Amino acid sequence: MKKYLGIVLAVGFFGFFALLYVALGTDFYRKKQAPDQPIAFSHKIHAGKVGLQCLFCHETADKSTFAGVPAVEKCMSCHKNVATDRPEIQKLAGFWNRGEPMEWNRVYRIRVRKYVYFSHERHIKAEVDCASCHGEVKYMDKIRQVRSLEMGWCVSCHREKKAPTDCLTCHK
């Protein structure tokens, strides 16, 4: 009986760590994936090839804690006349014609904990380049998280740039 108890305990012990490894590995894998969006929007084309600045589409970033995502009207300000024959632009026009908002799937907000206060406005006023946190989106067809956004990563950046590291700067 003791023989079987030892085997059960050993299998349980190693099984627990195997499950933990798989769970953490899966979470890491998911974080690196780009979520699907209602339309296949390419930052590579818009920010790279066309050269649109981040604030052109994310127009609340310099005035708010959130960068915001563009409304269908913003997209259609160009796409009433540009690339109208492309299937993704036709999907966009469908939202416009039906008067429906596009529900973009957030890439970054889901990663920042609720008790952390982050302000895009503060960072833009401090002239922190968007790519510092979001990576070189002008080379990405599909946006994905490229930085951990964990406290240690943020604190390292604050120290490097001589920004405040007091706890209350970010924890409210």
Radius of gyration: 22 Å
Give the N-terminus to C-terminus distance in angstroms. 55 Å
User: Structural class given helices, strands, pairing?
Assistant: mainly alpha
**Low-confidence blocks of residues:** none
Structural topology:
Layout: H1 2-31, H2 43-49, H3 54-57, H4 72-79, H5 87-98, H6 120-125, H7 131-134, H8 151-160
Question: Which features characterize this protein?
Answer:
mainly alpha, 8 helices
Walk me through this protein's architecture.
This protein is mainly α and 172 residues long. It has two domains: 31 residues; 100 residues, no CATH class. It is built from eight helices and no strands. Helix 4 packs across helix 5. The longest helix has 30 residues. It is extended. The mean pLDDT is 86.
Summarize this, please?
The protein is mainly alpha-helical and 172 residues long. It is 47% helix and 0% strand. The longest helix is centred in the N-terminal third of the chain and has 30 residues, at 2-31.
